[in-house]
Amino acid sequence: MTDDVTARVLEVIGKLAPEPGRVVGPGDRLVDDLGYHSVRVVELIVELELEFGLPPIGEEDVSGLATAGELAALVADLAARRA
Questions:
Q1: How far apart are alpha carbons 60 and 22 in whole angstroms?
Q2: How many domains does the chain have?
Q3: CA–CA separation, 57 vs 34, rounded Å?
Q4: What angle (nearest 5°) sits at the alpha carbon of residue 47, between those of residues 20 and 31?
Q5: What are phi and psi of 29, to 5 degrees?
Q6: Full domain range(s) for residue 29
């Protein structure tokens, strides 16, 4: 299940990336590689909450996350807790 969640998260990240048309990998950095800025990160988090039926993800949960893979791991963990 984690692989499915990771693939879906990476797809959403790519769909909402400020620099579209890029295939997103787990090692891609949200800010440096994909061009995300603070407002766009918030939009991404809200989209992931809706996509996976998650409770609101707090700033404390995402602070320090740098890569798409780290964000995917967080979403997979939160989704597993809801299952």
A1: 28
A2: 1
A3: 21
A4: 50
A5: -85, 130
A6: 2-82
Q: What is the pLDDT of residues 27-46, one digit of tens each?
A: 999 999 999 999 999 999 99
| CATH number of 25's domain | 1.10.1200.10
CB count within 10 Å of CB 50 equals 10
Distances from the Cα of 26 to the Cα of 32, 50, 70, 73, 82, angstroms: 14, 21, 7, 10, 23
Q: Look up the pTM and report it.
A: 0.92
| 74 closest CA partner among 61, 83, 63, 64 | 61
Taking residue 23's Cβ as centre, other Cβ atoms within 10 Å add up to 8
